[in-house]
């Protein structure tokens, strides 16, 4: 008598031609010190990583060295470039800067001021949270404006790398915008990615698939500060 036909569960396989993208939030950046302004770049606060942030960059680099990463991208801000550096050195890959993947511009709260506002429960910080939109701050990008530059930028990367895995080092607000696009939800709902946490996307011409979000198992403890 022949054995009955079996149908085991299969492991996930990306569709043919899909691009797999690992989004990595940068490590912790240097603190805002009153009286010492952040360096600025194109209207954005551009602090370097803190000592802890540099350690976090090493940790995520050590984790991703095992992955078949074919290309590395960063925003044009220092903290993403520093976070990508350990992996880039280990892989021998020169990172490519993409300006449109820089963090949300916070208008009158730029240069680290939003951190102070959050700590003090400034009315505009509270309004951002209540509205679920960065545009509550005078001069800041709205969620829609942020997505309008981030989504095409990541789509272009995906189009360059069919059937490949790329690592893209970005920012918490950018990750929220991209995940919100994938789910068709308010980007502000997807803030809170930990420093150097991994979000895994599979992108095809038809859809964006979220395989994981905020994976920071390389960091140990499951709790962390999530300020911009």
In short:
By secondary structure, the chain is α/β, with parallel strands linked by helices. It has 6 helices and 8 strands; from the N terminus they run βββαβαβαααβαββ. Helices cover 33% and strands 17% of the residues.
What does this structure look like?
With 228 residues, this protein is α/β, with parallel strands linked by helices. The chain has one domain: Phosphoglycerate mutase-like (Rossmann fold). The protein contains six helices and eight strands; from the N terminus they run βββαβαβαααβαββ. The protein has helices at 51-64, 78-91, 113-120, 123-131, 143-160, 172-183; strands at 19-25, 40-41, 44-45, 69-74, 96-97, 165-170, 198-203, 208-215. Strands 5-4-6-1-7-8 form a six-stranded mixed beta sheet. Helix 1 (51-64) packs parallel to helix 2 (78-91) and helix 5 (143-160) crosses helix 6 (172-183). It is globular.
Number of helices: 6
Rg for CA atoms? 19 Å
CATH C-level = Alpha Beta
Order of helices and strands: EEEHEHEHHHEHEE
């Amino acid at each position: 008598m022949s054995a009955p036909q079996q149908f085991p569960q299969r492991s996930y396989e990306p569709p043919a031609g899909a691009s797999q993208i690992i989004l990595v939030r940068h490590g912790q950046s240097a603190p805002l010190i009153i009286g010492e302004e952040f360096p600025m770049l194109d209207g954005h606060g551009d602090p370097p990583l803190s000592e802890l942030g540099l350690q976090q960059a090493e940790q995520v680099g050590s984790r991703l060295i095992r992955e078949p990463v074919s290309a590395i991208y960063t925003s044009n801000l220092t903290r993403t470039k520093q976070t990508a550096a350990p992996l880039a050195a280990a892989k021998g890959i020169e990172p490519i800067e993409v300006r449109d993947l820089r963090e949300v511009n916070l208008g009158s709260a730029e240069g680290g001021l939003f951190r102070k506002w959050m700590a003090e429960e400034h009315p505009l910080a509270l309004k951002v949270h209540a509205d679920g939109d960065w545009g509550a701050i005078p001069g800041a990008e709205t969620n829609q404006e942020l997505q309008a530059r981030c989504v095409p930028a990541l789509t272009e990367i995906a189009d360059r790398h069919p059937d490949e895995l790329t690592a893209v080092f970005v920012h918490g607000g950018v990750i929220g915008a991209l995940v919100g696009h994938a789910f068709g939800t308010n980007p502000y709902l997807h803030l809170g990615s930990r420093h150097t946490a991994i979000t895994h996307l599979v992108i095809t011409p038809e859809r964006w698939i979220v395989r994981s979000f905020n994976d920071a198992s390389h960091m140990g403890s499951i709790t962390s500060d999530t300020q911009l």
